[in-house]
User: What shape does this take?
Amino acid sequence: MTEQHSHGLRVVDDFYRALRAKDIDAFAELWTADAVYRVPTTPDGVPGEFAGRDVIVAGLGGFFALFGEVRLTWDAEPMADPQKVLATWTMEVDLLAGGTYRNRGASLFRLEQGRIAEFSEHVDTAAFLTVFSARAGAVRRFFELLQERDFQAWGELWHEHGTLTMPYAPQGLASLIEGRSEIAAAYRRLFAVYEKAETELTGVHPAAGSDTVCVQYKVRATLRGGSAYAGENIALFRFRDGLISACHDYFDPRRFQDVVDALPGPQPR
Assistant: This one.
């Protein structure tokens, strides 16, 4: 085996070690500036090519934001062309939104001047979809925890600097709440008004090429005192570091006014 062959194997080993450690800086060092990352077969709505080191690194950083512990094994062998290395691998990842992503595949590396210039990866696309469903899973968990009134766990779904925006807030309700602790406190206060509340998700729609998830949902609640509230709403969720960074909640303010009026004390706008 030539020194070029040995170097190629070391680069591939460093590639998979960086993935396993979620070390984005080490990962970035392995690529040429104009590198190309290809996934020839992808699910609908998922890009099959990333061009340029910065784009590749940013794309991988988006995946890392969804990942907990990564368990990864690989086997690499040099090709006759010393600039090329073939690797087979298996991966198991704990997703922060819950569940486990498992996949296996084969990857072909082409090097230039000791860095990765071209990378082609073949994966099980059906398994790959579980990564893209992680944010949708977090949104479903959001509503499940509200139903259970587990505000401690619910608050942990939010980014520390998350924001809740209600563009059509009724009179007496703040249209913007900033910060995880303030949002959790507001929901505790809101749910204290409910004798009973049920939420039904009627649509969960992750956006292609974006971190946004659109949710359609119905709310049926009985307020303390016996009056009822029902609404059909839409909420848009955005994510940062795998956590909810923004939620825009759209609902009929006329119907929700009864809930706001039942809150104790004045509400800031």
Remarks:
- The longest strand covers residues 100-112.
- The mean pLDDT is 87.
- DSSP finds eight helices and twelve strands in the chain.
- The first helix runs from residue 3 to 21.
